[in-house]
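The protein record passed on below.

***
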Amino acid sequence: MESKGPMKKEGSRTLFLWVIVLFLVGCAVNPVTQRSQFSLMSPQQEVAIGRELYPLYTQMSYGLFQDPTLQDYVQTVGKRLASVSHRPNMPYEFNVVNGSEMNAYALPGGKISVTRGMVSKLHNEAQLAAVLAHEIGHVSAMHHATFYTRQTVASLLTGLGASMLQAGGGAGGDLLAQAGVVAANLVLMKYSRDQERQADELGMEYMVRAQYNPAGYVQTIALLQEEGQRQPSLLESFFSSHPLTTERIMASNRRLEQYGPGLRTPEALRKAPFREHTRYLRQVAPAYALMDEAKQDLSTGNAVRAASLLAQATAQAPKEALIWVFRAMAEKKAGKGREAVLSARRAVKLYPTLYHARYVAGVVLFDERNHRESLEQLTEANKIVADQPSVLFYMGRNWEAMGQRDRAARAYHAVLKKVQKGPMAQYCYQRLVEWGYLR
């Protein structure tokens, strides 16, 4: 008991020294405010984190919308805005991901995505510029670095601080481990009202610098507000990270009045280029509407109707891999195994690097007892997004069916490292016990 006093004192000294070191090395100049601020994320770290997360979050958003014309167009508009931002030298990238919801998000380092659902609701290039400029504003003002620093320090001073005091030191490794967890959650952050207000202000400023009509910004906010009232679920993701308050809307309208009439012209909205570059998107929009309707049917168990709707959707947009993915899922649930395999193979052929296509192909092929091809598809899925429990599980099921117990056991053990509850975990645990790998 008597030894706890020195131990606590030593732990407190270690924690204090770490905090001092962090404050000494963690100073950065905010490029927007030109003021020094405490930051634990260097620009190099920011770029590295964004580069690592960008492919993953693109796959989580159903991959790229497969229209090179639109992708190049959005990249061009985004780069035009980024070049007049407060951080023009960041390695910006812009893409259109294939989610149907209305959303846009920025990763650290200037990696910015906008959904197909969002672009399909816009009417001119200035509105698209408004969405992208707002996300650039978050990057310029170092909002990711602020979030990262706040969460890391909070962890240090609470949970990690307590463990250090009890253990009497050993801060470095724990801090780095905790920082890694915080980094992985960066895109799940919720911006503060002040950050949203600042991104609004910067977004409109960048639009004007890039010669866009700033009225496009107000139009976009009005459109989001209208869609949010009409279909709240469509904007759930966007509003969870970008709360649209009445005050923000009023402030944007006031800000618009500060800009002169020079750019507030119909020409500066750039309707014609937008319509030209979104032609294919508008062409396949009805097919995606059918897909979204079918997804609702799948969620309520009406797989037969979902399969019928998706057959119509693929007839309207035969080159859209994601629609074929959902068609394969619906056909599988409707008991049409052979048709599901054909649809899944079609999806893979159209978009070989789409995780969802490879994964669904692996599952439907497993159900049809085509274990070798199923393994091939799941192996490719695992290369695209590594170590997903469901992929590992079906890989194990295939190995088991092929009589390769050791490989199956390794897969099941990997699943249990990530999932401890539910039917999948229970199956893996039971098999490992039966085979003598666990007691």
Observations:
- The longest helix spans residues 143-167.
- The longest strand covers residues 93-97.
- Residues 20-25, 156-184 have pLDDT under 50 and may be disordered.
